[in-house]
Amino acid sequence: MFDEVETHIEAGTLIKEFKMSALPSLYEQFVQLIKFLLDNKHEDRDQVVILFQDMLEVVTRDIVMEDHILNLFPHVKLGLEAQAFPIRTLGLIPVPPYCCAQ
């Protein structure tokens, strides 16, 4: 994803290839994520997972044009949102982080 964005920035085609209207929504989600991470509460784990899923949805549905989705996110199966970002089931993101667990 980052390489694709960087390529379009260098080519001057970022605004043509990606819809920027959803950036305020994504920004708000990043702010909420930072708050969760700063609070570092284990009980917020489910909310962090949901937030990551919401962020992925904003990127895949609202920012990335349809013709780029499969190139950028080959693991995403359109229409199968529950399988698109399996953080919870894989246990990839511990909350609180292992380094900071009390």
From TrEMBL:
Domain Callose synthase helical positions: 2-68
Protein name: Callose synthase 3
